[in-house]
Design a protein that fits this description.
By secondary structure, this protein is of the alpha+beta class. Helix content is 31%, strand content 18%. 39% of the residues are buried.
Length: 251
């Protein structure tokens, strides 16, 4: 069972093969589950060089960061989460839909679900699809029941297994201990303001990082400063970071 100090799923929990940060594989997974072909995942080649950021269509609706779970990061997480109550939000009044991770090595899937369940991306989920059904069932549920719903949704497991086997590198075993993790950043409204949210199933709930302007997205300077650049500062020399973004399709 996860705890405040160790939020990871238990060794005996349901386990998925880790998902590679491969835009083509992730796009295929999302389309299979019911996301419109109008959106796709894109490589983000740099978050500090504007000429490389320009390769991503704008606005970018979500940013997924893969990062090493270092001792420095864990210390920062524990300090920030200390005294914060466990999130209990549910219902249509939630500013964002957040999924607590209870499936081992499923952080990539959690990141993708956070990306498409929130903000403008939600409007691109097609009717009568596994994603639409999952979202409709998830919204009224508190976090624990929401996580249980993910565990018993066979379409997720099937699509994830197929995607995980398509990566460019050899996938680890589902039961392996992996020290890389996904976090998702989205822009979603709260009380009339556009907020940058950090969504991570290992945390106690969704985290509001700051207010963005109407013309800013998850790749704007402020969003990058409040989001992925903070993770790079805590990297401790470990450069195993990568980013992919959800944005309009190039086709």
């Amino acid at each position: 069972m996860s705890t405040t100090t160790n939020p990871d799923p238990s060794p005996n929990a349901l386990a998925f093969v880790p998902l590679e940060a491969n835009p083509e594989v992730m796009t295929s997974l999302l389309h299979k589950l019911g996301l419109s072909q109008a959106l796709q995942m894109h490589d983000v080649y740099s978050i500090t060089e504007p000429e490389l950021l320009a390769f991503v269509p704008r606005p970018a609706l979500a940013l997924l960061l893969v990062f090493p779970v270092s001792a420095t990061y864990e210390s920062a997480r524990l300090a920030e989460d200390a005294g914060v109550p466990e999130y209990a939000g549910k219902g249509d009044g939630e500013p964002v839909v957040w999924y607590k991770q209870t499936i081992r090595n499923a952080c990539g899937l959690m990141g993708l679900l956070h990306a498409v369940s929130n903000g403008p991306a939600r409007g691109f989920i097609q009717e009568n699809t596994p994603l639409q059904t999952l979202l409709q069932k998830s919204i009224p549920l508190p976090p624990a029941e929401r996580s249980a719903l993910l565990e018993r949704t066979p379409e997720l497991a099937t699509a994830h297994q197929e995607a995980a086997s398509q990566g460019a590198t050899t996938a680890p075993d589902a039961r392996d201990d992996v020290d890389l993790h996904y976090v998702c950043f989205v822009k979603a409204d709260r009380d009339g303001e556009s907020v940058l949210w950090e969504l991570d199933g290992r945390r106690k709930g969704p985290i509001a990082r700051g207010v963005l302007g109407p013309n800013e997205d998850v790749l704007s300077d402020k969003a990058l400063l409040w989001g992925p650049l903070k993770f790079l500062e805590r990297g401790g020399g470990d450069m195993r970071f990568s980013c992919v973004a959800l944005a309009g399709s190039l086709d």
